[in-house]
Specification:
Order of helices and strands: HHHHH
Number of domains: 1
Shape: flat
Largest sheet: none
Helix content: 40-55%
Radius of gyration: 15 Å
Strand content: under 5%
Low-confidence stretches: 96-105
């Protein structure tokens, strides 16, 4: 799956810019996600979906579920909790896609 040569297929930059009023820097996003900044750059400029990711998208589409549903729920929860803790420690606003947060009350 491709888009035009000028258009990335993964919308990392758009999502990062939409985060909060001011957006996150690449380094802040990398820190919260615990991934190298160069990975953020690679995803933001990606013109073709990596085969592994495209395969997951195709399976999810065939099953009519979000890609996240193909990952073990315990792993998804562990990642979300770790990111939420880093967000709190760094005083980053809660995720705009999950205003209720993921940390237990």
């Amino acid at each position: 799956m491709t888009t035009t040569d000028q258009e990335p297929v993964l919308l990392v930059e758009r999502q990062r810019a939409l985060y909060g009023d001011l957006g996150l820097t690449r380094d802040q996003l990398a820190d919260l996600a615990r991934v190298p900044g160069r990975l953020i750059d690679a995803y933001a400029s990606c013109r073709h979906l990596p085969p592994f990711f495209e395969g997951l998208l195709r399976i999810a589409a065939a099953l009519q579920v979000p890609v996240e549903d193909l990952v073990h729920p315990a792993l998804v929860r562990r990642i979300r909790l770790a990111v939420a803790r880093r967000r709190i420690a760094r005083e980053v606003p809660p995720d705009y896609n999950d205003p209720a947060g993921v940390l237990p009350e």
